[in-house]
Each structure stands twice: as structure tokens, then as C-alpha cells.
UniProtKB/TrEMBL annotation:
Name this protein carries in UniProt: Enoyl-CoA hydratase
Assigned EC number: 4.2.1.17
Keyword Lyase annotated: yes
InterPro entries in alphabetical order: ClpP/crotonase-like_dom_sf, Enoyl-CoA_hyd/isom_CS, Enoyl-CoA_hydra/iso, Enoyl-CoA_hydra_C
GO molecular function: enoyl-CoA hydratase activity
PANTHER family per record: ENOYL-COA HYDRATASE, MITOCHONDRIAL, ENOYL-COA HYDRATASE-RELATED
Family: Belongs to the enoyl-CoA hydratase/isomerase family.
Length: 260
């Protein structure tokens, strides 16, 4: 039996999901997209998991794109379905009720960058390269790349990356707002897990409130967004974690958040 295209391991309250096709630089075929979807559904449903780290197996790539060999034979209808399959996965990740960090350990190209952009935060190794090179295949991004890159990095950078197709290095990606942090490749693992542990120890319902507000706010006008934020803010006063967090501050101790 061939090895699973997606591996899952738990490190305390941090679930690590690894795309596991290192021989193909973790390229996303339909089976891998489906396995990722299942892995994220499981992480969403498990209360003990408070933060997710997504990465790629091997030293070379996060994910080098959608699987070009698989795409080569698709009909237009199958191509559309493949796009929807990828888009649904990225949307599922974006709407996860707990923070998802992409640990970008190498190439994040095409569907790989789209996958990383579906995550809430991105930490890249200084050796990583990111881009939307589909144009070189006579294609366009199909897993949400034109839309999420536009929202993350703006029109000029999106047009340049998608029209020209040349990847950028991690430092340039940070300058463009595509990745949050760049760290030395040797530190990537430790730095990412440090951040993941910090988030895993934070207040889960408040984290979810932030994620919901930002997701809603990215897609509506300011008045509607502010109204949504107010409603979420009010809701926080029903949580034990809000009482605990404010009491801990006043008592000069560390809070212990329960997720209630
Ligand atoms: N889909 C399918 N297979 C891929 C792939 C992809 N997106 N990216 C890499 N692979 C495969 C290669 O075909 C090769 O397989 P093989 O050993 O069976 O021939 C293996 O992964 C290693 O890749 P290779 O190209 O030999 O590595 P490299 O170090 O010379 O180049 C890249 C690395 C990332 C520059 C190069 O693989 C590349 O350009 N990949 C495609 C990037 C892309 O266009 N992505 C967008 C797709 S929508």
C-alpha cells in the first residue's frame, strides 16, 4: 500500500498536518486535496486541538503546486471540478475555528502558495520561494490565488506575480505582505512551534472571534464589519475565559484559558 499523501501528528494541543509527497515536491493531486480536507475537518472537530501547523514533507518544498501530470489530461469540466476541489479546501482552511499556520519550508508555488494563503499566518524559511507560475503552463491560478493574493498583497503585486510568473524569495514575499515572518531555515521548525504553542495556550473562543471578524470583514463594508465585531465583542462577555483573562491581569498572574 502506498504511503498516505497527508500525515497528521499531535504535539500537545498543536496538530501538525504534513503534505507527504516529497518525491513530487508535495504536488497537490485530487487524492491529496481530499486527504487534506479530511485532515482539516478532523482538526476542526477535535476540541483538544487548539492550533494547526501545515507544512510539506522533505527539505525542498512546502508544495510545488497543483499536480501538473494529473492536470495534463483533464477535460474542461474536470478542470473546473479540480479548481472547485482546491478552492473548497482553501476556504475550509480559511474558515477553520482555530488558527492555522503555514510553515513554508521551501517552494510554495501555484497551488502551494494558494494553500499557504488559505492559512491564517505564514512563516517562511529564508530559503523559500513563492509565486504563481501557472502562466508558464498556459494556465491561471485556480485554487483562489488571484483573489487571495489580491487581498493580501494588492493589485500591482498580484498582477506582476500572476502575469510574469517569476517566483519571489521569502524576504520579498514578506515585503509584499504575503508572508508574516521570515526565519533562518534551521530555525523554522522551532520558531513555528513556538508561535503555535503560544496560540494553543491563548483563549480559543477569542481566537475564533478574531478569525470570524477578519473573515467577515474581508468580504463586507465597514458598517457591517463593525456591527459584526460589536456582536462578537459582546459575546466574549459570556465566556469564562474573558472572566479568567481579566481576573488574571488584575491578580498579576498568568491566565489559564479553558475554552469555555
Ligand atoms: N506537479 C507535478 N509534479 C511536480 C510538480 C508539480 N507541480 N512540481 C514538481 N514535480 C515533480 C517533478 O516532475 C519531479 O518528478 P520526477 O522526479 O518524477 O520527474 C519531482 O517533482 C522533482 O521536481 P524537479 O522539477 O525535478 O525539481 P527541481 O529542483 O529541478 O525544480 C521546481 C523544482 C519547483 C522549480 C520545479 O519542480 C517546478 O517548476 N515545478 C512546477 C512549479 C509550478 O509550475 N507550479 C504550479 C503548478 S499549477
Amino acid at each position: 500500500m502506498s504511503e498516505s499523501p497527508v500525515l497528521t501528528t499531535d504535539h500537545g494541543a498543536v496538530r501538525r498536518i504534513t503534505v507527504n509527497r516529497p518525491d513530487k515536491l508535495n504536488a497537490l493531486n485530487a487524492a491529496t486535496l481530499d486527504a487534506l480536507r479530511a485532515a482539516f475537518e478532523a482538526a476542526a472537530a477535535e476540541p483538544a486541538v487548539r492550533c494547526v501547523v501545515l507544512t510539506g514533507a522533505g527539505a525542498k518544498a512546502f508544495v510545488a503546486g497543483a499536480d501538473i501530470a494529473e492536470m495534463n489530461t483533464l477535460t474542461p469540466v474536470q478542470g473546473r471540478d479540480f479548481s472547485l476541489r482546491g478552492q473548497k479546501l482553501m476556504r475550509r482552511i480559511e474558515k477553520m475555528p482555530k488558527p492555522v499556520i503555514a510553515m513554508v519550508n521551501g517552494f510554495a508555488l501555484g497551488g502551494g502558495l494558494e494553500l499557504a494563503m488559505g492559512c491564517h499566518l505564514r512563516i517562511a524559511a529564508d530559503t523559500a520561494k513563492v509565486g504563481q507560475p501557472e502562466i508558464n503552463l498556459g494556465l491561471i491560478p485556480g485554487f483562489g490565488g488571484t483573489q487571495r493574493l489580491l487581498r493580501l498583497a494588492g493589485r500591482a503585486a498580484t498582477l506582476e506575480l500572476c502575469l510574469v510568473g517569476t517566483p519571489v524569495d521569502a524576504v520579498r514575499a514578506r515585503e509584499l505582505g504575503i508572508v508574516n515572518r521570515v526565519v533562518a531555515a534551521a530555525e523554522l521548525e522551532a520558531e513555528t512551534m513556538k508561535l503555535a504553542d503560544q496560540l494553543a495556550n491563548s483563549a480559543p473562543l477569542a481566537l475564533r472571534g478574531v478569525l470570524d471578524c477578519v473573515n467577515v470583514g474581508g468580504e463586507c463594508g465597514i458598517e457591517e464589519g463593525l456591527e459584526y465585531e460589536t456582536a462578537q465583542f459582546g459575546l466574549m462577555f459570556s465566556t469564562q475565559d474573558m472572566r479568567e483573562g481579566t481576573a488574571a491581569f488584575l491578580e498579576r498572574r498568568k491566565p489559564a484559558f479553558s475554552g469555555q
